[in-house]
């Protein structure tokens, strides 16, 4: 009776192949995240440059792009988390399968006993399983909840962030000495500087080639 | 990875008995001629596959050599010094001696088959034999055979000793170079219109380049084992294509003077060149990707795959080896394209903007020095 409720367990080879594909996609997501992080850093640098040039409008534009990239990074993080979640579930597929098999065996045994209290135990166990499944679904729903991304940026917030950047820049300048006297010129007699030839360095590829030729007795 | 072209080792010959033809003046000369005939018969039995000696006895006779190829090389190396002694007599200066030598050489009936002619691949009535009454023809064909068997020996030890394999290929290249530069140029003026391709100096030049390409291919295998950088591996593979392109260029001139030379030789060189070009560009692409130029990497791989797919070998084992390489490179290209679509979004440059391949040749032939016995021979009828 209970055997009808459970299909055949998923093929092991399919799970392994799927895990490989998930791993591949995970690597891609990580690479993309690195690229976006570089772009964020680049925009921050540009904003600093525009601030030094007193171009406030352009600096704010850079900060806007920075936030767009950060949003993308956050999204990629969620994607990675979902993939990790699925990988964990897939990796646990065998355990789940064995659990179901054990439950099927237990159910058959309990059925053979034909005792009312045992039937209640089975029902209780199934209720617990259903509860766990429900918990997992709630977690998935929470992860899948759309991010509350505001389409419009708060200009006041951006200006405040810009002032922070300006403040940091100003602090950095204040830490420098007040005046920097030019270094005294060093008198060097003309024509008396010894010229040392720079020793020629072999490239790593040339070293590899030489090692290969030696090993092959060429 | 390496295609196999066995034909240069498949020459056959007919029996020759020197002492029945050359008139000896003394017992030393007669003994020399008998020794010469005996050593040649050993070669005849081997290459004509008329040898009924068991493997154990063959090993014992050759002094413990296990390999059949090694045994054959041993026999040829024993024969050549005896034959070399006679070569100076082929360059007789006086007219009377020339007439006498010509008569003897005609009576010898120096006959060899060709493994590089079109007809030799159909084998309807057995191989066709070419008779050329010149001792240099005998020397040339024997050396050509020696080079061919050395190639087979090099392939035999490839899986166990890469250094020895490359060295043997280089030795074979040296023999073919010696043929092309020192032996066959003297023979070509004497060749009849109907001649085997093996008697042409240009064909030996081709074989020398093929052996160097194969030696470099073996060296690349060692480099790959060592984990050499992609950029250097790319240059080495393109170095192989440089050898083969040079050989193909010579082949185009040979075809004009020897029309029945087999296209099999040309196909072998072409498909080897394509394989190494594909492999070289694949390593170049991996090197470009590591430098952050995935667009160029995709362009390089796409371009070379389009090129090598235009023509595919018709038969196994060449066909399956070739298709396997294409499949591997296509998989790498698929991964690169997928990653570019997903992460980098780089533009793929046009074919004219792609970096050009750079080839490096690192193998050279080992020079061949002919050995000959220091022995004074004396013949009747020669002044």
What's the helix and strand layout?
The complex is a heterodimer of chains A (218) and B (383).
Chain A: H1 12-52, H2 56-91, H3 93-113, H4 116-144, H5 155-174, H6 204-215
Chain B: H1 27-47, H2 55-61, H3 68-90, H4 95-108, E1 111-113, E2 129-131, H5 135-156, H6 162-187, H7 201-226, H8 230-257, H9 263-290, H10 294-308, H11 318-344
Antiparallel strand pairs in B: 1-2
Helix pairs in contact in B: 1-3, 3-5, 5-6, 6-7, 7-8, 8-9, 9-10, 9-11, 10-11
> Could you tell me the strand content of chain A as a percent range?
under 5%
The biggest sheet of chain B, with number of strands, parallel, antiparallel or mixed sense and barrel status, is:
2 strands, antiparallel
Number of helices of chain B: 11
Q: CA-to-CA gap between the ends of chain B? A: 58 Å
CATH class of the domain at 14-116 in chain A: Mainly Alpha
Number of distinct helices of chain A: 6
GO cellular component, one term (chain B): endosome
Pfam family, one (chain B): BRO1
Organism (chain B): Glycine max
GO biological process, one term (chain B): protein transport to vacuole involved in ubiquitin-dependent protein catabolic process via the multivesicular body sorting pathway
Verbal overview:
The complex is a heterodimer of chains A (218) and B (383). With 218 residues, chain A is mainly α. Chain A is built from six helices and no strands. Chain A has a domain at 14-116: Orthogonal Bundle (Helix Hairpins). Chain A has helices spanning 12-52, 56-91, 93-113, 116-144, 155-174, 204-215. In chain A, helix 1 (12-52) packs antiparallel against helix 2 (56-91). The termini of chain A are far apart. Chain B is mostly helical and 383 residues long. Chain B has helices spanning 27-47, 55-61, 68-90, 95-108, 135-156, 162-187, 201-226, 230-257, 263-290, 294-308, 318-344, and strands at residues 111-113, 129-131. In chain B, strands 1-2 form a two-stranded antiparallel sheet. In chain B, helix 3 (68-90) packs antiparallel against helix 5, helix 9 (263-290) packs parallel to helix 11 (318-344) and helix 10 (294-308) packs antiparallel against helix 11. The mean pLDDT of chain B is 90. The chains are: A mainly alpha (218), B mainly alpha (383). Chain A binds chain B through residues 28, 31-32, 35, 204-205, 208-209, 211-213, 215-218, and chain B through 162-163, 166-167, 218-219, 222-223, 226, 228-229, 231-232, 338-339, 342-344, 360, 362-364.
């Amino acid at each position: 009776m209970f055997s009808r409720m459970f299909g055949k367990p998923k093929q092991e080879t399919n799970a392994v192949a799927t895990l490989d594909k998930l791993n591949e996609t995970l690597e891609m997501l990580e690479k993309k995240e690195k690229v976006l992080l570089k772009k964020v850093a680049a925009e921050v640098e540009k904003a600093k440059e525009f601030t030094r040039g007193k171009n406030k409008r352009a600096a704010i534009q850079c900060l806007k792009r920075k936030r767009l990239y950060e949003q993308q990074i956050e999204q990629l993080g969620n994607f990675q988390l979902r993939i990790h979640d699925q990988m964990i579930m897939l990796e646990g597929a065998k355990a789940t399968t064995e659990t179901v098999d054990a439950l099927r065996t237990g159910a058959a045994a309990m059925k053979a006993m034909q005792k009312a209290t045992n039937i209640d135990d089975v029902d209780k166990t199934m209720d617990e399983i259903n509860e766990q499944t429900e918990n997992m679904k709630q977690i998935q729903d929470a992860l899948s909840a759309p991010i509350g991304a505001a389409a419009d940026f708060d200009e006041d917030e951006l200006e405040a962030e810009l002032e922070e950047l300006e403040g940091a820049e100003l602090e950095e300048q204040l830490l420098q000495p007040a005046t920097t006297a030019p270094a005294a010129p060093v008198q060097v007699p003309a024509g008396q500087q010894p010229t040392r030839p720079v020793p020629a360095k072999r490239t790593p590829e040339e070293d590899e080639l030489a090692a290969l030729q030696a090993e092959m007795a060429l | 990875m390496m295609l196999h072209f066995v034909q240069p080792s498949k020459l056959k010959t007919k029996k020759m008995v020197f002492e029945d033809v050359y008139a000896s003046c003394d017992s030393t000369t007669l003994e020399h001629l008998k020794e010469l005939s005996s050593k040649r018969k050993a070669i005849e039995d081997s290459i004509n596959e008329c040898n009924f000696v068991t493997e154990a006895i063959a090993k014992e006779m050759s002094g413990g050599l296990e390999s059949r190829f090694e045994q054959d090389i041993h026999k040829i190396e024993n024969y050549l010094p005896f034959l070399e002694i006679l070569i100076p007599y082929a360059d007789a200066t006086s007219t009377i001696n020339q007439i006498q030598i010509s008569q003897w050489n005609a009576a010898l009936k120096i006959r060899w088959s060709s493994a590089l002619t079109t007809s030799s691949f159909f084998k309807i009535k057995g191989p066709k034999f070419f008779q050329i009454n010149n001792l240099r023809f005998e020397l040339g064909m024997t050396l050509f055979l020696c080079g061919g068997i050395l190639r087979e020996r090099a392939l035999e030890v490839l899986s166990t000793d890469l250094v020895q394999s490359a060295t043997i290929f280089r030795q074979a290249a040296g023999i073919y170079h010696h043929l092309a530069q020192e032996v066959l140029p003297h023979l070509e003026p004497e060749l009849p219109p109907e001649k085997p391709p093996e008697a042409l100096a240009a064909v030996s030049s081709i074989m020398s380049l093929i052996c160097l390409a194969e030696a470099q291919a073996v060296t690349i295998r060692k480099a790959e084992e060592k984990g050499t950088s992609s950029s250097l591996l790319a240059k080495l593979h393109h170095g192989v294509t440089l050898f083969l392109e040079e050989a193909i260029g010579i082949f185009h001139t040979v075809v004009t003077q020897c029309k029945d030379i087999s296209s099999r030789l040309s196909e072998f060189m072409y498909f080897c060149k394509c394989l190494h070009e594909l492999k070289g560009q694949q390593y170049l692409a991996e090197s470009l990707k590591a430098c952050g130029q995935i667009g160029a990497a995709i362009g390089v791989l796409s371009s070379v795959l389009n090129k090598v797919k235009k023509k595919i070998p018709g038969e196994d084992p060449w066909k399956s080896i070739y298709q396997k390489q294409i499949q591997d490179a296509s998989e790498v290209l698929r991964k690169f394209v997928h990653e570019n679509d997903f992460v980098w979004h780089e533009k793929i440059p046009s074919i004219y903007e792609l970096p050009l391949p750079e080839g490096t040749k690192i193998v050279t032939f080992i020079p061949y020095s002919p050995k000959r016995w220091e022995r004074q021979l004396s013949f009747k009828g020669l002044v």
